[in-house]
Give the backbone structure.
Amino acid sequence: MNNRITTLFNVKYPLVQAGMIWASGWRLAAAASNAGALGIIGAGSMYPEVLREHIRKCQAATDNPFGVNVPMLYPDIDKIMDIIVTEGVKIVFTSAGNPKTWTPFLKSHGITVVHVVSSVKFALKAQEAGVDAVVAEGFEAGGHNGREETTTFALIPMVRERLEIPLIAAGGIATGRGMLAAMVLGADGVQVGSRFVASEEASSHEAFKQMVVDAGEGETQLTLKELAPVRLLKNKFFDDVQALYQKGATKDDLKALLGRARAKKGMFEGDLEEGELEIGQVSGLIHEIKPAAAIVEEFIADFVHAQKEVAAFQIHP
């Protein structure tokens, strides 16, 4: 399965395990990379020295390429970028900020740079900034999301129409069938988050993983758009947010309710009532916690099976 993404990252499959806060530590990244995908360490929930430790452990656990995802709103981003360079990381995914800020620095150190966007406009800005590839993430995705609410099915062909560099689709992809659909729409590969949350190697709390597995259709919703749009599983905290909106909540009201470490409380510590539980709509398709290698294997088998089904379709003009 060779294409622009496998060539860019030197991986077996055009499949990226997303860098998610409180879920994507070195164990998950190494397991995904060892299985032929591109594993990603999520730096968003790590202090600089914790990230250094995860990078070193990942390097010891896999000989295959892996990357680091860096949300650019991170307060210690200078230290994070210095660690990435000094520890010899070869691939960086940036998000939540202007790609012009760090792309030249990373490229000057020979690092492959990918930027995450949610619109055609920002995909083109990322290309202008000199990134090597773009992740276009649809409204279905978990975690921080686009205010435009453009779905993956609409976003990918619109970005493909305008973009020249490699395109990775994200949002609502949890099966090989979904991977094939995204690539038919114009993506060169896919980035998968929610499915890997429910993996044995994910650092997220077991109670959160089980809640993801148990979730059905309609049990997530995008909210907190005034701060940073995020898709959450519905729980007591989500209900508290909705109640605040009904009272005409201001930004300050929402910030006060959110407080500090709300995502850590939910996804890492397993407080399913008061925690912020970020996950994609596609959680309704996730029914089992599995090793990351089994998830990758299942993706590719499903992709190949769907390819054969599509090849059998006959349309006569």
